[in-house]
Amino acid sequence: MIPFFRKKGNGKPKMEGNESTVSSEDLLNESADTASSEKQIDTDLSVHPEWTISKEDQYSFQFLNMECPPLKPNQISLSGISLQHEEAGQYQITAFIRSSLNKTIKLHETTLVLLDSSDNVIGRKTMDLEEAGDIPPRSSRPWNFHFTDQDLFTKDIPEEGWKLAFQLKPSSRKHSLDLQDSWEQSLAEKDKNQLQEMVEKLDPPKSGEVNFMGLKAVHKEEGDLHVTLLVRNGSAKSINLEQIPLQVEDANGEVIAKGGFTLKDFGVKANTSKPWTFIFPKEMVTDGELDLSSWKAYPVQKNAAH
């Protein structure tokens, strides 16, 4: 076995890969634990009982584990530590298996994918992860994953910015709600549950499709128009939206508001829907009474403007 870490100039270990996260419900096919009210969960280092490692490696794993961001309840993640090329077409990927669950879990045969920094799949392998042993509650277990040239789709393997991820079976991935942190913190649990139920009852978007569904439109006394939409991602990849040109039509099919919105760090995870409120200032809204008994909002192409 090759070393876990490459030596850095400052002598400190560094996470060379990124983190991928799935819900325990999707991966383990079991109901989520709703008892915990915590929004963020830190994981404690858990080295496999049969591993014998040096004090230096123990310190390095402890240091890197503390660098990992907290998990949300009912999440399991893979956090990339290092990807090293062994001889004869062998690759060793070291990553943390992290769990925020309040109980011990055990993984079984699972398909893993290796992604580059743009989330393109550059490798795939089915592995039996029972050897990783029992993963204690709220813990982070370092483990080595071995790939060969036959498991990889390219010879251009990045040393940094890659990601190891669980490949979920399509049948186990139901479309779910994704909330921005600000919404997660401000929405009442009752409202979150209503949104989740609505998302689950709706027909999911087609595979690879991204669309917008209207939830609420309010014309304020000062003239602003507040439009809440559900951004629905039917893709198997997360998307990041930076600029959205939107227009709104009223019950008569007339365009009553039009404008461009610049978003910061607005990502929508794969196979999820995320609500967001877009505020059209008074100057972007048609004068007079608006018939909002029915309405729709949708993105427009720049070249579609007349």
UniProtKB/TrEMBL annotation:
Compositionally skewed regions (Polar residues) per UniProt: 18-38
Superkingdom of this protein's organism: Bacteria
Residue ranges of the region described as Disordered: 1-43
Database matches in InterPro entries: Sec_acc_SLAP, SLAP_dom
Biased composition (Basic residues): 1-11
NCBIfam families given in the database record: acc_Sec_SLAP (TIGR04399), SLAP_DUP (TIGR04398)
Protein name according to UniProt: Accessory Sec system S-layer assembly protein
Species in which this protein is naturally found: Salibacterium salarium
